[in-house]
Amino acid sequence: MRVFSGIQPSGNLHLGNYLGAIVNFVKLQNNAECIYCVVDLHSITVWQDPSKLQKNIYEITAGFIASGLDPEKSIIFNQSKVKEHAELSWLLNCVARVGWLNRMTQFKEKAGKNKENMSVGLYTYPILMAADILAYKATHVPVGEDQKQHIELSRDIAQKFNIDFKDRIQQLYNKDEFFILPEPLISGPVPRVMSLRDGHKKMSSSEISDMTRINILDEADLIANKIKKAKTDSDSIPDNYELVNDRPELKNLLSIYAGVLGESPKKIIEDFSGKQFSHLKTSLTELLVERICPIGNEMKKIMSDKSYINNILNNGASKAREISEPVLVETKKIIGLS
Ligand code: TRP
Known about the structure:
The chain is mostly helical. 55% of the residues lie in helices and 7% in strands.
């Protein structure tokens, strides 16, 4: 079992990243070989302020460490330091089909009506993601639910490559398949943390209003204010979890509560049933201040030590290259480029 996953350094590491991904990353590092990547090349598919990008890369790295990832156990690095990602991505661009990319719902959602004006990178983004995964022959990819389609695409690309070059793979390496088809792992405590202002939208670092999310670096009073102003409905809290399905904002606050505490939402609802929203909100604020603020404080400490972070990223990049470089060399050989 080899695990690969990535988070974009687009600023504002938030509760969605933490509950949907990082908590799971930390658990996995004790049972598998894990590679965690700050995917800076993905983040520039939409414009990033050059004066902030480096800081954002440090922020994600610090978030990884503060949450419990151990650079001795897991490989931690940023994507642009390992050129194999970009190079393999080109090779896979020539394997993937336009029709496949045209089905990607994340591109359609991000581009909206403005498709013609998006960067080509945003369109081919899932191919770079496939390169990230396939360059390490990762078997498992922990991601939020929204990334499932991209993992499917990575599988399709791996499979088409294996079929297109079947004879060559057989002849050179005496194997039936070269790339491994990766499996998604959707088992974070909360696979989809939603916006505090709209229970139908994912919590996101690119949302303009900061009130839609809890950032890991938020101070206690800001967290209190965001939770207080979080959207709710006017009913009280039912005793059965099935009944929250058509109340997305309530469902979201309960899942966040459960996720941070490490309990199931079904159990949490028993504690709050019959009570008003304000009661849930007060308890949730206390819980977040108790569990999330210390991670934020630790992140700030780590971020103030740039040479420590640089060290982690440089070491991680050289370990990553030890795996991905031979894969790229072999891929080029299979294609006939060397
Ligand atoms: N696209 C992922 C996201 O936005 C980030 C990502 C890039 C990724 N490359 C990856 C996730 C490889 C898993 C594996 O969440």
